[in-house]
Amino acid sequence: VDQSCAARPDWFLKWLLGVPATGLDLPGRAVELASGRRVGFDRLLIATGTRARPWPDPAQAALDGVFTVRTRDDSARLTDRLAARPGRVLVIGGGFTGSEVASACRELGLAVTVAERSATPLAGALGAAAGAVAARWHRQHGVDLRCNVTVMALEGDANGRLRRARLSDGDTLDIDVAVVALGAVRNVEWLSGAGLAADERGVVCDGACRAFDASGIVTGDIFVAGDVARWPHPLFDGQLLAVEHCGNAIEQAATAAHNMVCAPSARRPHKPLPAFWSNQFGVNIKSVGLPAIADEVVLTQGTVAERRFAAAYGQRGRLVAAVTVNMPRWLEAYRALIEACAPFPPQLNAADGPAELQPIPAGFPARGQPTHSSVAASTGPGPSSSPESQVPAPPSAAPDPRLPPSPTPLDDHHATAPGRVVPAPRPAARPAEVSAGVRRS
Amino acid sequence: MTTTAGRDLFAQVLDPASRHDPYPLYARLRETPVSLQEDGTYAVSGYPEIAALLHDPRVSSDERKSSRGTAAMSASGRFDNPPFIFRDPPDHDRLRRLVMRQFTPERIAGMHERVVAVVAGLLDAHRGHGQIDIVDNLAYPLPVTVICELLGVPREDEPRFDDWASALARSLDPPESMTKQEIQHAGHARAELREYLSGLASERRAQPRNDLISGLAASRDGTGQMSDQDLLSTLVLLLVAGHETTVNLITNGMLTLLRHPNALERLRREPDLITPWSRKSCASTHRCSSAPAQPSRTCKPPASPSRKRRPWPCCRPREAVTRVASPTPTSSPRTAPTTSTRLRRRHPLLRRRAARPHRGTHRARRAGPAPGNPASARRPAAIQGERGAARPTPPAGHLRPARRLSPSRLGVPRAGVAGEDPHCDRAAPSSP
Prior knowledge:
Helix content of chain A is 18%, strand content 27%. Chain A is an alpha+beta fold. Chain A has a 6-stranded antiparallel sheet. A two-stranded antiparallel sheet of chain B has the order 1-2. In chain B, helix 9 crosses helix 12 (228-259). The termini of chain B are far apart. Classes of the chains: A alpha+beta, B mainly alpha.
């Protein structure tokens, strides 16, 4: 609890801590609490966020040594366990959380195996082409990375301590710790049947953070912010975005708060470009835009071999995202280009760029949510579109059917590299185009 | 956004006649942060615009890729092994890393006492005189002493390299503003300075000391990443930079205070306005400079004729525009630890001064461009006469010329200089 808020009696804050909301009475404009109490409202903000997706088998998930990482307490518990120098650590899921945990384990000198259902780590966030590069980092740092592999079962001893994991490739691993990094689940169950446009993808709201009801009518008094929100971004054809990053949550909270109390004519839109960063295996990864909707990716600066590069993501000939590795300096320029709907591949003529731009398939799962968080994802159009099947599947030996098992890696320019070559740069003829990159922030 | 108005503004900034009070011109430049100039270049004067350009991979710092002033710069030898501030990544980053590695917190912190002692010594030497020549007796000897000791250049060689350094600093100005002799002179100076430093470098390689030349020479050996030529370019850069920018910074800072007696008085009353030097502030200074520090950026050679006619934004010279436009000037190793750097960076009054449009702005706008330019209208006769004389044209960046201010002209001791100071120009250059 933020004590600084609690210490402001003049704000007339009333905390109801430890009491979950269990339902929303939309016609009665009241929230129902687990205590049986009803709290009426003039304005409501839904900011219930997400929780770590648990291991699907509750008995196995309860074994001592099985962790998820979501909250500060989760991290503290895991840190304590890792400090006790366990035997092998199994990380289930090679997304950002899984990769960062694996990286931390290697820094501690612990043996670690990463089991990833897709062809590469980070496939959901950065695509399989960039993920193939991340796979090299894993292996160079001594991670036992197993792609196209599912964990079938976690097994404990008589004392309920985790001992083994059985993998879909037939292997059995002796492990002391398993970190379940399978992405996040949105906390929307309490809204079930309430009549809001809410499902497991989140609560749909408009650009002003106002929630939609189930029939697609925007409510004027219910607002949504943070990881649980889905909202249309003007830059991405009104596709509903769900962004799991604190930067977005903070900004969206400010916008929602403003819109909750301002005059109707003064409402602000929430339309920042999604952005995130991650430090792992000694590299700093930063991204801006929406990589997950891209169909192609191209190396634009630096070299993959030196672990300093920038890559641009395009969707149908338009720049939609950029990722830098150990090169954050240039990201703002890409942001400006994305906001200007610049063409893809972007002709930058960067001094440290390749002689020829060679876009290759970005390698994102075709549709639907990836197995683990992609940080920023398009979650489909319109408030009342139906979700794809989200039934939690039991562990299966089948690899991720949405990705080819061995994607083309994003790589430095080689004469024989696959992918289409974009030959002569299109001249940026008019100075007006130049000024597109020069903007007041 | 560009406009046809004020298309000679930047040329006016370069005009030595504008030097004594360039602020109205800067204010007008900032009204159109990106403005197309008559010669086809763009003058970029707004902080966010400059920051955006500095972080734009489409823009280059390598003057060899510019189509502008190529012949002149080639003649002055500037294209041979340019220092890292005129290079692009990855070379820029690699060389800069090697240099920055030398500016350890320990080394910087270790200089503190010595810098304080040098300043005290310089001031003490004039105690009781009632006046001091800020340039000759403080602003010049201080940074030169510091950079010499830092690099490990014998202070007694100063007369030798002073002329070289001045000629080289001059060659940073736009080539259009230089005479043929100046360009040649700069070329010679470059060659001689390199030779001189090359001698020092081989000495230090044989017998290392605790100085930058030894450190850089060793880091070259240790990593195999800095070639002999790059080492010399870096040393030239550090030496010239130590000569140039800080001198002007101290002097112009003092001049600004003298022009604003209230600010000076407040500073005397509240010396805490000068942020105490600390290791922390030093570290943050270094972090600030992780961006490429050179504001002059050019573009790759045009790929099409249309690009050739309309080059991409290119702003030169660097200092005139960007230094005033940025609220926090990009720092560099050479300026990190001095008091006056912090003064300029931190002093709220100074900063406000830089940001506030000059009173002359509105008049200037009403009067229209060039002919009615108040700067030229106010130009003192003496300076006009000087301009006509057959001597090297003073350099363009207004912050630079303070080098040879004479004490009486500055009027330091008695009455503070109020308003525009007509004498803030370089007197005839004399060899030291």
